[in-house]
User: What shape does this take?
Amino acid sequence: MTLRTSLKSTCMGVAIALIANAIGAEEPAVPVGLQVELTAKIAGYDRNYAPRAGARAKVFIVSKPGDAESTKVANQARAAFGGLAEIGGVAHEEIAMSFAGAKGLADEVTKQKPALIYISSGLSSDVAAIADALNGKDVVTIAAIAGDVSKGAVLGFDLVSGKPKLLVHLTQAKKQNAAFKAEALKLMKVFE
Assistant: This one.
């Protein structure tokens, strides 16, 4: 094998690896800052949000350990939530969490009683387990990745014709005590 053939082969291998990585990478369809703004607005349309939140709503921001993209998205979400005075008319605080399994997350929900959980990228394969673990818990999950709503996250965001679209998993919302008003549901794409 000549040097030229070897370099060509190496370059092709690198290109294939980069493409595979890009395809496998989970990136939010809607910018994280806009997701947070929409979450702050839609929270007020959940009839159970204010009682769940109390005087100060806790927001868990969950990322996948060792995943740089997940950490980046979580940090963006934390900064965006931190820049808001209120979510759904309630003061709030953000708590960064490294995902340690669905049961561990459910245990923390029981202990700390967050109003919202923002699920960062990199956790798509865990969303169904998270949804199962949170059945009966009074908390709303928000997915950074649109496809995670069909897997059981309560809320998410997608781009439709270049515009952000709210997504809701209505069955899971009921299991997690979220009751969105009809005027909000009219604006959302509903999954059952």
In short: The helical segments are 3-24, 32-43, 49-53, 68-82, 102-112, 127-134, 170-175, 182-185. The chain has one domain: 26-191.
